Amino acid sequence: MNLNFWSYDMLKKWFCAALLLVVFSCSNEPGKQAPGKKPAGVWAQYKVWAEEGDSAATCMLQFYTNERMAQTMLLQPPAAVQIDGQQLQPDSAGVVGAFYEYQAPVAQFAGKHTILFTDLEGDDFADEFNFQPFTIGAELPAVLSVGDHELPLNGLSNGSSVRVVLTDTSAEGVGINELLQVRNGKLELPAKLWENLAAGPIVMHLTAEEERPLKSNLGGEILITYGLSRIVTLRK
User: Fold this and answer.
1) Which residues pair with 222 in a beta bridge?
2) Per-residue DSSP letters for 158-177?
């Protein structure tokens, strides 16, 4: 899809919770990886995201002069960045600044990928990530009472983090926002999540989140998210 920073699609992309990733060590020879070397003046923020129903997963790669991330930067040749061997071209817009974007069909993008950053000296920093969409194994009943519920999830490993956002339709509703962990293939939704919600329709949004520093010597971090939504009715 084309990037349009004034469109609903762009707003959705930026508020989905989506990508930070970058690259691994390199060698003193150009084009070779060498442990210990760290490029000066580069901080990478890489995000990868998609939502159930999206046609494509999106990777948004941005580079900054330091970890305060006040100013984005364009890579000057021979510096470059690629995903799975495909070199990315720069773009920029408004307050977003400079970025490098990659999109691929969600189904085809599931699995392991490599981001390769090349610095001004021609040294390479590679970082791998795994993009894994998940599905609900058995749907919750259409009408729920306040109590403990569990949700079987397919595609997430034990200990995976899932953000649960529950929103009711009342004017006073504050909603629920909790980060929970998958245990034995299931997500436990305890009664306390439902107690303060108003009876009626509840929008439940689940987002699997992985956020970590880059494993390479390139300073930065990676955020990978995949989300889906359901609507249930809460009975009190």
Assistant:
1) 46, 212
2) TT-EEEEEEEESSTT---EE
